[in-house]
Amino acid sequence: MIRNRIVTGVISLLFLSCLHATAWGGEINNTYAKKEFVKLKAILGSCKVIKSKDDSIRVGLLYSFSDDEYRAVFSESRDSLLLEEEFSEKSPIGASSWIIAVPEDMRLFLSSATGNISVEGVQSEIKAETGTGTVEVNKSTGTFDFGTGTGNVQGTDIIIHGCSRFTSGTGRVDITLSGSVDYDMTVASGMGDAILNYNGNPLRGHFVMIAKHELGCIVSPVQFERVELKSDDHFQYDKKSFKIDGRDMPHIRIETGNGRAELIK
Description:
Elements lengths: L2 E2 L5 H9 L7 E8 L3 E6 L3 E6 L4 E8 L6 E7 L3 E8 L8 E7 L3 E7 L4 E4 L2 E8 L4 E4 L2 E8 L4 E8 L3 E5 L4 E5 L7 E5 L4 E4 L7 E8 L4 E3 L6 E6 L4 E9 L6 E6 L3 E5 L1
Parallel strand pairs: 3-7, 3-9, 4-8, 4-10, 9-11, 10-12, 11-13, 12-14, 13-14, 13-15, 14-16, 15-17, 16-18, 17-23, 18-24, 19-23, 20-24
Antiparallel strand pairs: 1-2, 2-5, 5-8, 6-7, 19-22, 21-22
């Protein structure tokens, strides 16, 4: 059962920090029992995910759209929670901000057409995508599939516990680890820099780095064992690779089009 109430503590403080920038007109705060997964389908809204202080899911929403043009949908089942934005107008004026506090070991599916998505201090399996916003993850552990069309992807002090991807169409992708990687991983941008920083942790596996020939560049602290020039119907690509101690796995791929593909030890 949904219990509507004012959520105190961290969520309230985060909301208050937004008040100086936006004249929020509506507020919703709900609490749910832990589920297998949470799915957010935002259109214009931004989202911040933090760790819950107990085994409950807490959802807070602030919005400045008029109630005539904006509707937030909360759909709960035994195993899942669906959060969704609906608009009755094609060009609504306003903003919305979701804050979701979750227990550990959940699956999260987060999407927004234009909003930013940030994750902090969470241990989960997370898929996050936005069309034009940025995607950030800080001090978190899990399996990550993060992507944006034109925004940046930033990861700081993260531990990879499953095959993961961080991609952007035109923005910068910059990932800093707090532990070595034992799973396949991709860091890629179509036009921006793609940077993977091991932050002093040991390198393991098979590293492949790719950039458009004479348009992008590849930077590595380790000498390459194999250098190739590949072609498709439109471009030529430099493909360079090496293996640590001859290991084929995990497979680490760092790729860019016109930017810089860089590995940092």
